[in-house]
Amino acid sequence: MRTSAAGVLSLILVSAGVAPPASAQEAGAATGPLSAIDWLSQSVATPAAAAHGGRPEAIDEPPVAAAGSALPATVTTSSLDGPSPDGIGLIPAPVSGLPRDLWGAGMTREIAEALVKHPDDDLPALRQLFLTLLLAEVNAPVDAGGRGELLLVRIDKLLALGALEQAAALIEAAGSTTPDLVRRAFDVALLTGAEDRACSWMAKSPHLAPTVPARIFCLARSGDWDTAALTIRTSEALGQISADQATLLSRFLDPDLYEGEPVPPAPDPVTPLDWMIYSAIGEPLPTERLPIAFSYAELGPRSGWKARIEAAERLTRAGTIPPNVILGLYTEHDPAASGGVWDRVAAFQAFEAAIRSRYAERVARTLPPVWNRMQEVELEVPFATLFGKALMDMPLEGEAGQIAFRIGLLSPFAETVANRASPASAEDAFLIAIAQGKAATALPPDSLARAISAAFRAPAVSADNQALIDGNRKGEAIIAALDSIGRGVHGDLRGVTEGLSLLRLVGQENVARRTALELMILERRG
Q: Contact, 34 vs 109, CB < 8 A?
């Protein structure tokens, strides 16, 4: 992918008599790693560790904040002759709605820091925009230099958000077998039930140096128990693994030998390889306290129905799996008990049966209870995606009618619902105006609505954010908008006005409308 901005900057430098750095690689190397995720398995030894028999010395990457100065070199240049790994994406520009020059004149380190620091608790519309930002096929930053550093940051952020399938597809699209990418591919494969494929990659990549736990795991998966046992004994004797690691791995090979003995304590942090080994010895570690990516491991048939539902709820709430997954799980069996998740299952099944029956009375009776249950787990928008259209065509009145109206506004059919609706209150009228793109002229019913209205009436942003727009750094401006609205959700209503204004100024009008509706309808105010 061509980075046209780099050529412009180079011409400016030459005409000004300023010499750029000798290479972009030198500039990047001087500032340290850009990405950090502490729960990756030590599955592949780093090049430095290979000289020590494959024992990793320092495989964990430090956080961005600890990586020295965040300031980039004054100017760097990038080759225009071929594609850069940092430009690889899954969503082409016409589909993503983002420009090819999304990063414009932005520098890799500043972009990376903005991505890494962005919190994981966005409103659903903003979360989808952020995921699109991570997956979009765009031009690499001007200082990318073909190193793929921003690609790694994007993959790690996807992992942190629980978007494992998307991360796996991005790794595959990169087509690279660098240790950093293989390490991530290995863990994604473990958590998505593709352990044999992960080990096959290792076996087919002789240039990689699998670490001791990864070698033993893959030897056992292939049925080579004798070599795996010998590797454990040899590695412990050489000090390459600790006594606890040796005990755990030996137990993994032959659990019967250790029956009745205490299991070694789980490490901190737990890696996907740790999780797989503890699960294999019959001591699975609960995933609700682990990073959300581990929830994927609970979706498979090896987990119980309750665990699969709870994992799917986490991932659906994060926006990383389609709502149809939770629909299938909620309706898979009859509820096994009452309370908690079983009450949600029962309410969902009663409503889903009512929708299929097409009887308005039955729907009106079952809609309020299921809506309350969906609000408990913040699954209102996925629920609206599933049932918004069906409810739109059903004559409902009273409480059920009001709930259906709001569900419709949270669905992909918001504008159609708004055009058909008759407002029953000032708040209803304002919601309809937002969906119709007329928020600027509607009467706001409360302080939040006033903050929203201001952004649609006369969008204005801070000097710093205006500088991002003027500097052709739309991607960073979008991240700044998401962060501003996040502050607004937690009480700073000026952040709502700033963030929505910024979204509109960078061409994200539809996202701004959906976000405004979610701000008004969902109970997310801190």
A: yes
Name residue 136's beta-bridge partners: 91
99 cis-preceded (ω within 30 degrees of 0)? no
Q: Highest mean pLDDT: which of 60-74, 369-383, 486-500?
A: 369-383
Give Cβ neighbours of residue 340 (< 8 Å, ≥ 6 apart).
none
Distances (CA, A) of 513 to 120, 124, 499: 21, 12, 12
Is the separation of the CB atoms in 304 and 319 below 8 Å?
A: no
Instruction: State the DSSP string of 114-169.
Output: HHHHS-S---HHHHHHHHHHHHB--PPPTT-TT--HHHHHHHHHHHHHT-HHHHHH
Whole-number Å distance between alpha carbons of 86 and 246: 39
118-172 per-position pLDDT tens digit = 998 899 999 999 999 999 999 999 999 888 999 999 999 999 999 999 999 999 9
Among 405, 384, 409, which residue's Cα sits nearest to residue 395?
405
Residue type, 103: W
SS3 labels along 260-323: CCCCCCCCCCCCHHHHHHHHHCCCCCCCCCCCHHHHHHHCCCCCCHHHHHHHHHHHHHCCCCCH
DSSP-assigned letter for residue 515: H
For the chain, domain boundaries? 4-71+84-210, 213-280, 422-526
Alpha carbon distance 417, 166 (integer Å): 32
Give pLDDT, residue 358. 94
pLDDT at 411 over 50: yes
Helix (H) or strand (E) run with residue 367 in it: helix 360-376
Answer left, alpha or beta for residue 423, where phi above 0 means left and psi between -120 and 50 means alpha: beta
| In the predicted structure, residue 502 carries a pLDDT above the cut 50 | yes
3-state secondary structure 158-221: HHHHCCHHHHHHHHHHHCCCCHHHHHHHHHHHHHCCCHHHHHHHHHCCCCCCECHHHHHHHHHH
Sign (positive or negative) of CA dihedral 519, 523, 525, 526: negative
CA within 13 Å, CB half, 391: 33
The contacts of residue 486 (CB under 8 Å, 6+ apart) are: 119, 121, 122, 126, 495, 499
| Confidence at 35, pLDDT banded by 50, 70, 90 | low
Answer whether 235's CB lies under 8 Å from 246's CB: yes
Q: How far apart are the first and last CA of the chain?
A: 42
3-state DSSP assignment of residue 7:
helix
Q: Which residues of 180-189 are buried (b: 16+ CB within 10 A; e: fewer)?
A: bbbbbbbbbb
User: Averaged over 485-513, what is the pLDDT?
Assistant: 94
pLDDT tens across 93-126, in order? 999 999 999 999 999 999 999 999 999 889 999 9
Positive or negative torsion for Cα 118, 298, 151, 473: negative
Q: What percent of the chain has pLDDT over 70?
A: 85
Residue type (1 letter), 438: K
CB 93 within 8 A of CB 138: yes
